Amino acid sequence: MKNKSIFKVLACLAIMSFNSVAFTDTAEIINDCMDCHGNNGISTEPDMPTIAGASATFIESALFAYKDNVRPAQQSKYRFGDISKAPTDMKKIVDQLSAQQISDIATFFAQKPFKAAKQGFNQALVSDGKKVHEIKCQRCHNSGGSDPDDDSGILAGQHSLYLENSMKDYQDGSREMDKKMQQKIDQLNSDEWQALLAYYASQQ
Prior knowledge:
It holds the Pfam family Cytochrom_C. Keywords: Electron transport, Heme, Iron, Metal-binding, Periplasm, Signal, Transport. This is Cytochrome c biogenesis protein CcmH. InterPro entries: Cyt_c-like_dom, Cyt_c-like_dom_sf, Cytochrome_c4-like, Cytochrome_c_Oxidase_Subunit. Helix content is about 60%, strand content about 0%. The protein is mainly α. The protein folds into two domains: about 1-110, Cytochrome Bc1 Complex, Chain D, domain 2, CATH 1.10.760; about 125-200, Cytochrome c-like domain (Cytochrome Bc1 Complex, Chain D, domain 2). The longest helix has about 35 residues, at about 1-35. It is globular and about 45 Å long.
C-alpha cells in the first residue's frame, strides 16, 4: 500500500513537471515570435506583419500553411531580443510546434489589440483605393479590411511593404489562395493595387 502511495505521488509530480515544461516551451515560442513580430505582435518593421488582433482562426491557418508548404517561408534575422541568434524562417519554426502549441500561440496574439502602422501613403490614391476595395475585396475583407472576425486577416493599417511582398507571392503562385481570391487578384492592374495600398495605409 505504501509503495502504491509513493507511486501515485511520483506520478502526480511527473504530470505537474510535464505541464510546467509544456507551458514554458509555449511561452518561449511566443517570446520568439515577438522577437520578429514586435512586442505583443505589433510590428515596427515594414516587411514584418503585425499579427496582434488577427483572429485565432486566421493565425492558425497561416501557421499550418507554412507547416504544409503552401506558403513560402522567407529567411529572416531576429529584430529584437537576442539578435545574435541565427536567421530562421517560419517553416523551421512551425515544424517544431504541436497542434496545441499552434492553437495556444494563435489565441495569445488574437487577444492582443491591433495597432495600425504609422507609414507614408499617397493621399491622392486613397479614394480610388477605397472604391477598388469595395468592389473587389469587401466581400471577404469587411469594414475596409479592418474586421478580424472575417478570418481573412487585417489589411487596414498593415505594413504596405509586407502587403506588397504578399501580393508578389500570390501572383507568382508560391502562396496558395482560393479560386475566388485568384479571380479578384487576376483582375487587379498595377494602378488599382497601388491605390489599395494607399487606402489600407491611410487607416491609421
